[in-house]
Amino acid sequence: MRNPLSYPSINFALTNRLPRALCTIAFGRLSRIRSRWLAAALIAVWKRFSDLDLSDSLRSDFDSLHACFTRELRPGARSISQEAGTLSSPCDAIIGAHGVVNDMAMLQAKGMPYRLDELLGSAASAEQYRGATYVTLRLTAQMYHRFHSPADCEIGQVDYVSGDCWNVNPPALARVSRLFCRNERAVVHCRLTDTGEPVALVAVAAILVASIRLRFADVLLHLRYRGTNPIICNHQAHRGEELGWFEHGSTIIVLAPPGWQLAAPHGSGTQIRMGEVLLKAPGR
What we know:
By secondary structure, this protein is α+β, with helices and mostly antiparallel strands. It has helices at about 5-15, 20-30, 35-50, 65-70, 115-120, 125, 170-175, 180, and strands spanning about 85-90, 95-100, 105-110, 110-115, 135-140, 145-150, 155-160, 185-190, 200-205, 210-215, 220, 230-235, 240-245, 250-255, 260, 270, 275-280.
């Protein structure tokens, strides 16, 4: 039986038992108030309670908390691997659950399965990723929040799926079944330029983060949409190219072709930076 006074239980109660959508909308409005004094004060509080590091940021001062959340990197802050037969990490993250999609089943945490077709919002879309390798990448609040193309690829379509805004941290993943399938998300469907194989990035929003912006599609994806919304793109992306951003911290699930393997020394619980090799093709 879980201890209701343990840190994970208290964290879960504080971040998920509140009116999530209302808190997300309210926080979004607060974060966009343009005041250098207010932004500096909020960032100072943020730094006190986290390991926020802005040394690799393009800017050193911000006129809103939102500007800090969505900050760009200074040139040269990340090295983008160009190794053939690999996928680079699309973001700074902590690696979570990973493995092979087995009969459409995946894991969000130990003993907590969910279905790929439900995640993608379409059984037809899920078929092309049957047997795929998946890796869960969790972006914490203090991390760089933009995500990038993992390889040279063509982005043919984005499916925006409306949903809730549960927290996606470990306490929530261990308690809320099918969490990734409940939350708002954007499924970026790609095909690798060199092989034509399908790859997908599933950007899952969370509490305080329920808006996803795509650089290559002039649309803001947020809670006011309902259902599944396909967006045709036909965008040719290059490895390391910025694709979009979250407004706080969240999760990206990478779906790679069958047989691809997580690159050493990465594993569950390890940190990875955008541009580092995340997955390798068979034989690499």
